[in-house]
Amino acid sequence: QVQLVESGGGLVQAGGSLRLSCAASGRTISRYAMGWFRQAPGKDREFVAAIRWSGGITYYADSVEGRFTISRDNAKNTVYLQMNSLKPEDTAVYYCAADSRPYIWSPGPRTGSNYAYWGQGTQVTVSS
């Protein structure tokens, strides 16, 4: 079992930045791809970004490409999401997730079912 705990959310003005963290416990995540998803009120969960187990390869949703950066520190069992140039439409609950399959890389939209473990989420609110 893997427990994931997100932190770093909050209220920020448009154009600002936030850095989300996802701390894993219970098992090392070094063999697994990790992802960030988000869900805005009244909307479906949306893929945001993914990072391969080694950290060398990343994948982003078009809506955040160039503004968000996903990274990981396997020694700390932690994944990060640096969010810059935030927009009001980025407002959502952000979730960290761990892929259920070791050493498998298949990122992209509609991949939520690949992730077996999810955090409780952290709220990000961007004011205009």
Would you mind describing this structure in some detail?
The chain has 128 residues and is mainly beta. It has no helices and eleven strands. The protein has strands at residues 3-7, 10-13, 18-25, 32-39, 46-51, 58-60, 68-73, 78-83, 92-102, 115-118, 122-127. The strands form two sheets. Strands 2, 4, 5, 6, 9, 10 and 11 form a seven-stranded mixed beta sheet that branches. Strands 1-3-8-7 form a four-stranded antiparallel beta sheet, with no helix packed on it. A hairpin with a 6-residue loop joins strand 4 (32-39) and strand 5. 33% of the residues are buried. The model has no long low-confidence stretch (mean pLDDT 95).
Q: What's the tally of helices?
A: 0
H-E order:
EEEEEEEEEEE
Strand count = 11
Contiguous low-pLDDT stretches (5 residues minimum) are none
| Strand-pairing-aware structural class | mainly beta
Radius of gyration: 13 Å
Pick out its properties.
single chain, 128 residues, mainly beta, seven-stranded mixed beta sheet, four-stranded antiparallel beta sheet, globular
Please provide a brief summary of the model:
The chain is an all-beta fold and 128 residues long.
Give the arrangement of secondary structure elements.
Blueprint: E1 3-7, E2 10-13, E3 18-25, E4 32-39, E5 46-51, E6 58-60, E7 68-73, E8 78-83, E9 92-102, E10 115-118, E11 122-127
Parallel strand pairs: 2-11
Antiparallel strand pairs: 1-3, 3-8, 4-5, 4-9, 5-6, 7-8, 9-10, 9-11
